[in-house]
Design goal:
20 strands, about 25% helix, nine-stranded mixed β-sheet, alpha+beta, 7 helices
Length: about 350
């Protein structure tokens, strides 16, 4: 099966998606983009009240339904307070780690007065001045957003229209290397959003009918735990979260593989469904790995906590340095597509 054109499409979609700022609570524009792209591909998506996107991808009418879930929301921050020196304390959205956002460029979006650039820095960030630079904690108490504006006090900041609760978005720095590595913030989970768009394109262009009714939900609050709690269509009995696959110490997956998760921090995936995913990976000739994720929750876990009586599992392309400056590979994209297309046959 030649999926090269769909892999290329997914990579281009990723570049577009990462360029759209979308921390949890500020993801509506990313959702609208996904809505528009699915419409262009010939589907009839719906926007949810939260700002996510739900779409039917086709399949046999008299079968149990499968809901694929990926999320467009990312990590980010909000302004927590304005400091006496005109700099800003931040509060994280999701699991943003202050130590690996040190010195990152970012954009602050005000509610009514446009946006401003800045850099998230250690307080007193000059090595030639700060005797404690090496040992100073990298946390939200000891770091601040330095605006690229001539402001020195709270009054100057407020005159720009900046208020607590304003959204701060970090630059994604998306790069695709000649060797096929994909480096960016927010591969979790915009890479899998791009993969599901490629799957939708594949099903439409190849005129394929999945063996069961298939839907996709592009959620917008996964990073804070309730993205997949609702919007499950009638007849759906299976949930498959298509998120990032973990890469790290003690795990076997690499960035070039598709990862299948039999257990996350929330508990085990459905045994039979996970077995079917492994069987599909083998049949498709995909390069795959099975790993238990030690610190991970997905949209599928959120749906189960909300009380839905469904089976669930979790897959995704291998992603290294999760919640930091992440890395995957075009082979991971291809292997995830191979698994998904075989699983839907």
């Amino acid at each position: 099966m030649n999926l090269d054109s769909y892999v290329s499409y997914a990579v281009e979609q990723l570049k577009t998606l990462t360029a759209i700022p979308s921390p949890s609570g500020f993801a509506r524009k990313a959702g609208e983009y996904v809505f528009e792209e699915l419409t262009r591909l010939g589907y009839q998506p719906q926007l949810t009240q939260k700002g996510g996107v739900l779409v039917e991808l086709g399949g046999k009418e008299d079968s149990d339904g499968l809901l694929l879930m990926s999320h467009v929301d990312t990590l980010g921050a909000v302004v927590a307070s304005i400091k006496d020196n005109g700099r800003l304390s931040l509060s994280p959205l999701g699991g943003l780690q202050p130590d690996n956002t040190n010195t990152e460029n970012c954009t602050l979006y005000t509610r009514f007065d446009g946006c401003y650039s800045g850099t998230f820095q250690l307080c007193d960030a000059s090595v030639h001045v700060n005797d404690d630079y090496a040992t100073q904690k990298r946390d939200f108490r000891h770091m601040e957003l330095v605006l690229d504006e001539d402001v020195k006090d709270p009054e100057g900041v407020k005159a720009l229209g900046i208020l607590p609760g304003d959204i701060v978005c970090f630059d994604p720095r998306t790069v695709v290397t000649p060797s096929g590595y994909i480096k960016s913030r927010f591969l979790d989970d915009k890479l899998s959003v791009a993969i599901l768009l490629a799957l939708a394109k594949y099903l439409r262009e190849e005129k394929l009918t999945p063996r069961q009714k298939v839907y996709a939900h592009f959620t917008v609050y996964e990073e804070i735990g309730h993205g997949g709690c609702g919007n499950i269509p009638a007849g759906v009995t299976q949930l498959l979260a298509v998120d990032m696959g973990c890469v790290g110490e003690g795990l076997s997956c690499t960035e070039r593989q598709v990862s299948i998760c039999p257990k996350s921090s929330a508990g085990p995936s459905d045994y039979e469904m996970t077995t079917d995913l492994i069987r599909a990976a083998k049949a498709a000739g995909a390069d795959w790995a099975v790993d238990v994720y030690p610190h991970y929750g997905s949209d599928a876990d959120a749906a189960l906590r909300a009380g839905w009586d469904v089976r669930h599992s979790l897959i995704g392309p291998g992603v290294y340095a999760s919640h930091g400056y992440e890395r995957s590979h075009v082979d991971g994209v291809k292997n995830t597509l191979l698994l998904l297309t075989e699983y839907l046959r």
